[in-house]
Amino acid sequence: MLLRNCFIRSWGAFKDICKPSVAHTQHNLFRFYVNDVPNDSPKVCVVGSGPSGFSITQTLLKNHPSLLVDMYEKLPVPFGLIRYGVAPDHQDVKNCINGYNKTAESHRFSFYGNIEVGKDVSLDMLWSQYHAVILCTGAQKERNLNIPGQKSKNIFTSKQFVGWYNGLPEYQKLDIDLSGGNAVIVGVGNVALDVARMLLKPQGLLKETDIATEAHEKLLQSNIKNVFLIGRRGPLQMACTRKELSEITDLPHISTSIEEEHFGKAVQDALKKKDLKRRKQQRLVSYLLKMAKMSKSNVSADSNLSVLFLRAPLEIITNNKLVKSIKFLKYRMKDDNPYEAKPVSTEEVEEIPCDLLVSCIGYDNEPIDSAKIPFENGKIVQVNGRILDDEGLYACGWCNHGAKGVLADSSNDSMLTGSTVLSDLHFLFAKKGNLSGSRQIITHFKNSGKTIVKWNDWKKIDHFEVTSGKKMNKIREKVLSYDEMISFVRS
Amino acid sequence: MYVTRCLLRSLSLKSSEMCGLSNAKVQSHGQMFKTTSTQSLNSITEPINLIKMTSRCFSKRNFHFSPELKNNKVNIKFVDRYGKLHEAKATVGDTLLDVVIDNDLNFESYGVCEGTISCSTCHVILDQATFDKLEEPLMDEYDMLDLACGLTDTSRLGCQVHVTREMEGVTFTLPIEITDARGV
Fold it and tell me: Which member of A126, A136, A483, B170 lies 3.0 to 4.6 Å from A48 by CB, making a disulfide possible if both were Cys?
């Protein structure tokens, strides 16, 4: 027994030498061999547990020997849009979670879920307890169509529809009617294409993913055969990627309709000029042009994707408050520069039949605390992520530069803002002195009875979801209620 | 003797490898299994199990001791996003992402999607000569490179470039530009 314990101790000590941050194990075998972090370490608060929150945490932990990171997340579960935004058939994108799990095992990292900054704890309180507070809260404010009839039945925002099939608890009871034949999606970004693909993809291909089971069952019963994607501008302004588009158009049972009139000489000339910065757009538009020219006589097609450009929604027509059709104002492109061209109204109105409408027109930023955070033209005022000089307040990710960009952009922004934080940290520590970090905040919550979800609690939820999923031959069966998630804390 | 060499070799491995935490390497070799830290660490409390585990780790890593396979290594270099030069030993056939992981180069946010062509964080810039010798990228790689910041004419995804003997002494550069280059 003594020899066995000696072996465990020496092996643990050797692991400390090999790797500064020791992996946290279920049995906590080696945790007590790690030196306690001194109380006077800089303490950083990250608000939000999505890609930018975890990426900046990785940057900070890697480049500073002793700082502590406390991550606050308003939901009981982490990972933000990776969990609730990325489509169920894009599981590879979610591989980034493996890296985030590894980061979470650091003894210098703590996770506090089910705490909403701005509601459960004020930004001022955080700012008084931490040397640096970094907002990674994403872009939460949905844009509205702002047209008559938008409150009619069977009209949804992308947040609602995507949240519905991705298991976001507040949208599980949505009454989504898929019995009609025509779906109109306003918007031509990757989110719009995700929604279109969920409606058109053979549902057998989704059954083993982490799609919400009830949503999947509803999609299995869907009668939607025609999906219209409506873009306000032309092909060269289309926000989606060629890959996302081809994921639908390459499906064997889909026919694709694209109007060739939008690919005039100006557009075709633009495609011929080599421009690396525009390469994504050029490859997308070349692909669209190819699809437009092909008369895709697909005898086995039972569904159709139509991409309509240069149309702005005007009015929703209803029958008994249920959406029946949508009127659009048609535009034409005005300027010579096809990339910068502005749409101009033609006064022509078109009506498209519509049984389901989903608006995927993007998100705006909204400051958590408008009194403290300077906000202009819909964006947080910041320089390299630093919001206020000398104050230790930062922003990273979509809440910083708007709701666009993919994982690589979150990573890049995290590195930039992370560098800013690290360069300010010495000054902030000298200015603010030793701070208690989460201690007072968590004590306050314990006294108030608020349930905090720690990382170990999330692992219980995670394990439950994966185990439940296995029984149904799925990657994961998500817990669909916040109360049920919180019940794991007490179990 | 073989067992002793396994044990000595295991003690020289970094803990992340022992735990099989480098999932990207597993993925890029197209292997279907993944190890987890708990599976590996649970079994190391007994010396016999330690030896068994190290030999399993070696088999997963395709780690060999035969002399002829020593010639399967080339020396390559990486310049990281801060301009610092890193030397690395690369096994012919491995991807550049494998090399970064195996050499513990620890580049931030590199290979986030673990080699599944779902992001562009393993973006590297090659010299023209090396770039020209490579096969044309797949459509998936083009699609992800489209979204990469600092895209150049000789850019590739590190998870798709396989090391060859001709890459001896070649330098691969991570892009410094981190602002959104797409601009449209």
Answer: A136
Q: With CA atoms as reference, report the closest residue to A460 among A478, A485, A477.
A: A485
CB-CB under 8 Å, B184 with A280: yes
Are B170 and A265 in contact by the 8 Å Cβ rule? The answer is no
The packing angle between helices B2-12 and B47-61, to 10°, is: 80
Nearest to B115 by CA among B172, B162, B174, B157: B157
Res A48 pLDDT > 60: yes
Distance from CA of A122 to the nearest CA of B (A): 31
Give SS3 for B79: strand
Which of A92, A280, A412 has the CB atom closest to B182's CB atom? Answer: A280
Distances (CA, A) of A232 to A93, A343, A347, B120: 28, 8, 14, 28
- Nearest one of A146, A153, A223, A224 to A184, comparing CA atoms: A224
Any idea how long chain B is? 184
Give the pLDDT of residue A389.
83
A414: nearest CB among B109, B149, B179 = B109
- Which residue among A4, A58, A280 places its CB closest to the CB of B109? A58
Q: What are A167-207's pLDDT values in tens digits? A: 999 999 999 999 999 999 999 999 999 999 999 998 788 99
Residue A141 tokens read as 């404010």
Q: A322 is written with which tokens? A: 């249920």
CB contacts of B120 in chain A (<8 Å) are 406, 408
Q: Which residues contact B126 (CB under 8 A, 6 or more apart)?
A: B134, B154, B155, B156, B161, B170, B172, B173
A137: nearest Cα among A59, A51, A68, A70:
A51
Output the six-digit token pair for A473. Answer: 């031959």
Judge contact between B178 and A416, C-beta under 8 A: yes
Closest alpha carbon within chain A to B24: A95
Whole-structure pTM over 0.80, yes or no?
A: yes
pLDDT digits (tens, 9 = 90+) for A247-276: 999 998 899 999 888 888 888 888 888 888
Kindly provide the ipTM of the predicted complex, given to two decimals. 0.80
Take residue A152 and report the two structure tokens written for it: 């009619």
End-to-end CA distance of chain A: 33
Do the chains contact at A62 and B81, CB–CB below 8 Å?
Answer: no
Considering only the beta carbons, identify the residue of B38, B117, B149 that sits closest to A408.
Answer: B149
In chain B, what residues touch A397 (CB-CB under 8 Å)?
none
* Strand residues in B54-181 grouped as ranges (E): 73-79, 85-91, 123-125, 155-157, 171-173
Q: Which residue of A has its CA nearest to B35?
A: A98
Report yes or no: B182 at the A interface, CB cutoff 8 Å: yes
What is d(CA B150, CA B137) in angstroms, rounded to the nearest whole number? 18
Contact between A18 and B37 using a beta-carbon 8 Å cutoff = no
Task: For residue B48, give the amino acid letter.
Answer: I
Question: Is B128 touching A (CB cutoff 8 A)?
Answer: no
Q: Which residues of A touch B149 (CB under 8 A)?
A: 408-409, 412
Q: Are strands A141-142 and A68-73 parallel, antiparallel or unpaired?
A: unpaired
Sign of CA dihedral A431, A434, A437, A443: negative
Distance, in Å, from the CA atom of B177 to the CA atom of A403, rounded to the nearest integer, reads: 20
Residue type, B180: D
